[in-house]
Amino acid sequence: MGRKKKLSTGAIIWCWICLVLNFVVPTLLIQAYDMGGGGSEGLPLLIVGAVVGGLCAVGYIVLLVGKKVGFFILCGSAAVSAILSIVAMNIPQAALGFINPFITWLLIKGRWNTWDEIDREKATAKEAYQQQHKERHNVDSFFWEHGKKFKTWACINCICVPGIIFAILAIFESDKAQKAQSKEMHDRHIKKALILNICTYVVFFAVMGILQATGVLNS
User: Fold this and answer.
1) What is the DSSP letter of 195?
2) Any long-range contacts for 151-158 (C-beta under 8 Å, 24+ apart)?
3) Is the pLDDT of residue 111 over 60?
4) Is the pLDDT reported for residue 191 higher than 70?
């Protein structure tokens, strides 16, 4: 049986198109405003419009990762946009603002009622996999959960690009700590993961210090 998907191919393509547009259009409007030497009159509406566009983009991102709340963010953004249009006495624009969420709903409604069921099936499958893995490799539950915390920490540290190699190595060590067959092995790998995670910050701040000292960050 194939894996169940929350979004159809058409819905995924539509969400990606709208996501890109909601990033691109506000950027172009701001650039046009700057090039035209815009005054302070239209600036508040431009800022609010950019914020609404950002909220729409967030809504599509949340939808793409399979969360229903993304659609409600879209509807809320459309409502804010409509209110602004009504204040500006642009009634047609207020009505057009709801076309986007309406089309989105038409594309996702066919599978909407199955989303909760898919989430439950994924959670059950994940728990079953973890249990089978623990039993197959005789993994201690404490080792698994303790190592998981360090692995999560290492994954977060991957955003510290200058020290990313240490963060990646910490992920591997954390994984070994999860699967350790004894407390000694677990503690050894956990210590290595701890040191590597700390090294991530050391390298990061060292690189930042060098860039600041050379004037790169001040330029």
Assistant:
1) H
2) 151/175, 151/178, 151/193, 153/197, 154/193, 154/196, 154/197, 154/200, 157/197, 157/200, 157/201
3) yes
4) yes
